[in-house]
Backbone:
């Protein structure tokens, strides 16, 4: 029997999509289990109160609870670094690892690694956020040399409501972004029911789909020494080997 691997996942409190999606991706890996710890996130906007939800001390407290379960990796399955700046996730990963002694990663850092490994310079961006949040994400990617061709933002602020968006609506947004011929499309929110669309979208458009729930799983598996290629049916990204 293969050695058991435990993946710890930090989850926004109002998120109802990422837990079932994460577990579904791991379904064919019987030695791998996912374990979740929540902290309060209810609104996504650029207001000071919404930004304060991502205070590192709150996240570190949730990470400490995962450490009690002796997980092998701790992942922040959230996309806040998209608008807070990528350095915020780099600092967070360092603080989690220092505090717990456990390797850490995030959805956004994993996505950015995949983009670099595959030479993506033009990224289709699909988000459920308001225009100002989505524009901030696009500007942060522009600063690292990646042009974003954006689908129309869905204009939602309430985090719980992101999971209520129908996959058909998301597929339409993905096709809108793909029509501009990017190197890849990212569904940029871990409370979207989008990851399961990857295989169909890729067969239709010939463009890879990088969902941020899936990027978290991809990097977590790599960090615990499990071959990502064993994850089937969730898109081409799992064929990419992590650094």
Residues:
């Amino acid at each position: 029997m293969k050695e058991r691997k435990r993946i710890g996942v930090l989850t926004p409190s109002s998120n109802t999509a990422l837990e079932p999606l994460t577990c579904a991706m791991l379904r064919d890996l019987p030695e791998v289990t996912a374990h979740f710890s929540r902290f309060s996130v209810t609104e996504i906007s650029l207001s000071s109160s919404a930004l304060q939800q991502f205070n590192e001390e709150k996240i570190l407290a949730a990470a400490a609870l995962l450490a009690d379960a002796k997980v092998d990796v701790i992942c922040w399955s959230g996309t806040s670094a998209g608008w807070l700046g990528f350095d915020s996730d780099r600092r967070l990963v360092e603080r989690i690892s220092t505090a717990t002694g456990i390797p850490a990663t995030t959805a956004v850092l994993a996505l950015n690694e995949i983009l670099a490994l595959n030479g993506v310079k033009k990224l289709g961006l699909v988000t459920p956020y308001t225009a100002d949040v989505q524009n901030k994400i696009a500007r942060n990617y522009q600063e690292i040399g990646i042009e974003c061709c954006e689908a129309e933002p869905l204009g939602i602020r309430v985090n719980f409501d992101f999971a209520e968006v129908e996959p058909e609506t998301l597929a339409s947004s993905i096709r809108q972004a793909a029509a501009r011929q990017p190197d890849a499309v990212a569904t940029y929110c871990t409370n979207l029911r989008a990851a399961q669309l990857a295989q169909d979208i890729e067969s239709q458009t010939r463009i890879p789909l990088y969902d941020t729930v899936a990027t978290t799983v991809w990097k977590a598996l790599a960090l615990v020494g499990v071959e990502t290629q064993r994850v089937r049916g969730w898109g081409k990204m799992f064929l990419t080997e992590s650094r």
